[in-house]
Amino acid sequence: MSGREDFAVNLASRHARGDRWRLMFMLSTLLAIVFLGALILTIVDDAFGYVVMVDEVDQRSLVPDDERLESLDAEALRAVIDERLSPRRYRAIERERPFDERTAADLYDIVLYEIVKPRVAETYTLFESLFARRSIVEETTLAHPDGELVFRSWVNMRFLSTSQTARPLTTGVLTAVKGSILTISITILFSFPVGIAAAIWLEEYAGDNRLNRFIQVNIYNLAGVPSIIYGMLGLAIFVRGLERFTSGSAFGASTSGEVANGRTILSAGLTLAILILPVIIINAQEAIRAIPGSLRQSSLAVGATKWQTIWHQVLPASFDRILTGAVLAVSRAIGETAPLVVVGASTFLTQDPTGVFSKFTTLPIQIYQWTSRPQAEFRHISAAAIVVLLALMLSLNAFAIFTRNRLRRQKRFG
Amino acid sequence: MKPVQTARYPEEARGALSFGKRFRPHEAVILALLFFCAAVSILTTLGIIVVLGAESSALFKEVSLWEFVSGTSWQPTIGEFGILPLVNATLMTSLAAMLVALPLGLGVAIYLAEYASERVRETLKPILEVLAGVPTVVHGYFALTVVTPALRGLFGQESIEVYNTLSAGLVMGILILPLISSMCEDALSAVPRSLREAAYAMGATKLETSVTIIVPAAFSGIAAAFILGLSRAVGETMIVALAAGAGPNLTLNPLKAAETMTGHIVRISGGDISYDSMDYRSLFAIALVLFLATLALNMVSRSIVKKYREVYE
After folding, report:
1. How many A-B residue pairs are in contact by the CB < 8 A criterion?
2. Domain holding B250: CATH number?
3. What is the pLDDT of residues A393-405, one digit of tens each?
4. What confidence tens digit (pLDDT) does each residue in B114-134 have?
5. What is the CATH number of domain A174-410?
6. φ/ψ (deg, to 5) at A169
7. Which residues on B lie below 8 Å from A390 (Cβ)?
8. Alpha carbon distance A105, B261 (integer Å)
9. How many domains is chain B built from?
10. Would the CB atoms of B134 and A336 count as touching at under 8 Å?
11. How many angstroms separate the CA atoms of A71 and A182, rounded?
12. Which of A90, A120, A222, B232 is 20 to 30 A from A84, comparing alpha carbons?
């Protein structure tokens, strides 16, 4: 056998094996993408779809024969309310806001949800609604003869603009969104300055000694600590240890009758701040490290002090990258659930949070609570809440990218 | 020589013109502040150790350490604090997660680092980053509403419970897949080009180069990714809280419900819990175990990475 044939003897099978494995590697990549697709599709699938609504009180019994409830004016709606609403509920709603001051749309809502009381008898996902419409129609006419089949987007204006209520049809995410935004503001206010300052110290000032090396290693280790441990830390330090401050009693803040016991937005925000601090520091350090030494040296050469160099040259030149890293960390904080459950998020809030000393719930907490309920309606509203959460995270990231690009355009160096 | 004309430089302006170092008190203050901010991280660690240590030592006055480590039943209401059922469930979900994430993650990494064209890589990497950025509560939702029903369809309704560790573990694997794949890809890409060229020159195919040269050369990086992924899986909470079930249960059957360490902490602290009770303290003891386990894993992972850097720089 010549050398050439010797070389070629196994070539075909070796190449075949190479091709097979190449396919395997491609498939695993494809699978990873499919998972992401499935994740997003499930959420969309559950957030929209047909529902069968059954009214407890027939709408036609409330209105004259030739009219519909939707088309009644305020006066007619008032008449229906006066006639049909139980005195107890009447007084309760009147106390919230007098009927005379309410708009027609407002009154319509009251008639609908207090008197007609629609109930979801059956729900379908988006794919069922799109591809099995006929069988759905057949099924519902048989099972719920007096029911009405409507296409419902579980994410709707009402859902976005209503506070938390106990019923899945009337509840909304406003309480949770307000809670999330307030909490995240506290987190940003605390973690951005501290994180950036720590990064400046470590990159610009810290000498190579034991203490600074320890700080650095410590930060890397903290970044790997499970988030629930930070929840325990927040519970012990902010909720219990510093209760006087986090409940607002030290500042004379009244929690409007509700005792929050330190389980406030302030405690939650600070816990999340401690949680994302290591990530912010590490990202900011990388941003500062990327600034060329020549920039510092030229500033020092014209007589600036070290701090002037950092403040006027290094920070402006690296700020876009610092911001990007910090926003990534914050969007992680928005989605955090476990530490906030431990810190003591409320399961049900009767009023929206008004300040940092209010009791709190956040979007992920709300999703967690709704998902753990067995009823199908709650599954759909948690999908809707996930859509809101992802939209919030996306808009935060978009805002960061926009700001970064603006900063880049204004930048002189780097 | 004439002396310097001091008349043109009045006494009070001298400071401004001298090139010597001037004392700037505000810069000293800034420096102190910067150091304090860096030291916050040390305070955090100290806080974690003190809080977890103090509360668990209060528990260990009542329950012996041996009982805690070796007990097979966790029922705080009747005073049984054996952590084994919780640890067992944590290990089961983590194992399932690693069985999904390691082969898939490594496959993705090899494809991206060795096979994919520049353009494919630039499109796929951000997609995987998006996957990594999805909040874990969403994964929990996915596990409960999609994966569990699918598994029940596959194995039959009777043989698999509504809450089970398998479903939680599988979805957890999806959660840590992007972490593993991106760390492995970094490790593979860091292997010097010369090694590839040498293998090709010897007549190796692309697969042989990847599997027998590149992967072993990047092995420490891959091992580090694996250990870090394991640490993430052990500390992951929301998926197991939603999908793995409530109530500690010592079982090796992944089709049954069992509560992990993190799941237990979340469930108990989410309810009404009175401070200074044994229940409350026992949560801190679990958290201490969790903290030490993840810390050890992270340190091992970092030391492996460090060693590997020394080889290739």
Report:
1. 245
2. 1.10.3720.10
3. 989 888 888 888 8
4. 999 989 988 888 888 888 889
5. 1.10.3720.10
6. -75, -35
7. 134, 138
8. 49
9. 1
10. no
11. 39
12. A120
